[in-house]
Write a structure and sequence with these properties.
five-stranded antiparallel β-sheet; 5 helices; 252 residues; alpha+beta; three-stranded antiparallel β-sheet
């Protein structure tokens, strides 16, 4: 024991101090590593699930982005299809409007002529008959036919539109047009080309009518060319009870 103590006393004091310092430093390092060990292990254990979650979220985001692009493309297709449908609907509406005009179901105005047809003011002779000196349904029907031949597009007699189903017949002392009883004077309005009056006047049939009715019996026919001729729409019903459309052949 005395020898050990003597040997310790022989060691320089600075070596003792250095040794104690190194021992303390080692102890501190060991203590720090011991305290950091669990934290490092904890971080390593949590990192894998976090990476997996991040990858899953990234995949979901990519899927949503792809779905958004798909929906945008679908919306574009629908918009294009909608534009096509709108064009088709507009075309069908235009065709329907033209059909309504042709059927006389639409009021029209435009350039044309107006004929005023009146009974004769000449007293019938003793050997004559009164009906010959009055405007008849046949007279009006002849005028209407001549106007169609001259290029008229719409005709009305005393605001009664003439259509494909119009009837012009004598009923007693009046003329029945469509379902209306008309009395003289009869105003026949017609819309047509600028040459409508010229073509009507040059028609042999109209010339024969004037000779047969105006010259022979005094039926008065006056013609005017107003700036605008108005033809009302057909006010009756269009019901075909016995006729049916013929199916069209494929590709016809």
């Amino acid at each position: 024991m005395t020898a050990l103590a003597a040997r310790l006393r022989a060691i320089p004091s600075w070596q003792v101090t250095l040794g104690i310092a190194l021992l303390a430093l080692g102890f501190l390092i060991a203590a720090q590593l011991a305290s950091e060990g669990p934290r490092v292990r904890y971080t390593s254990q949590e990192r894998a699930p976090l990476l997996e979650t991040a990858l899953d979220l990234t995949a979901d985001q990519e899927a949503l982005r792809a779905r958004i692009l798909e929906l945008r493309a679908r919306i574009g297709e629908l918009e294009v299809a909608g534009q096509g449908s709108a064009v088709l609907a507009r075309q069908l509406n235009d065709e329907l409007e033209q059909a309504r005009i042709a059927a006389g179901l639409v009021a029209l105005s435009g350039e044309g002529i107006v004929l005023l047809v009146e009974d004769s003011d000449v007293p019938p002779p003793d050997d004559g008959t009164l009906p010959d000196y009055l405007v008849s349904a046949a007279d009006l029907l002849t005028i209407v036919d001549e106007l169609w031949l001259a290029g008229a597009e719409a005709i009305a007699i005393n605001t009664e539109r003439i259509t494909a189903v119009s009837a012009i017949v004598d009923i007693g002392g009046s003329v029945l047009v469509n379902s209306a009883y008309l009395a003289p004077p009869y105003q026949v309005a017609a819309i047509g080309p600028p040459t409508l009056l010229e073509r009507l006047s040059a028609s042999p049939g109209f010339a024969d009518f004037l000779r047969a009715r105006s010259a022979a019996y005094g039926i008065r026919v006056q013609v005017a060319e107003p700036e605008v001729v108005e033809v009302p729409a057909y006010a009756g019903s269009v019901n075909l009870r016995h006729g049916q459309p013929v199916p069209s052949e494929p590709g016809g």
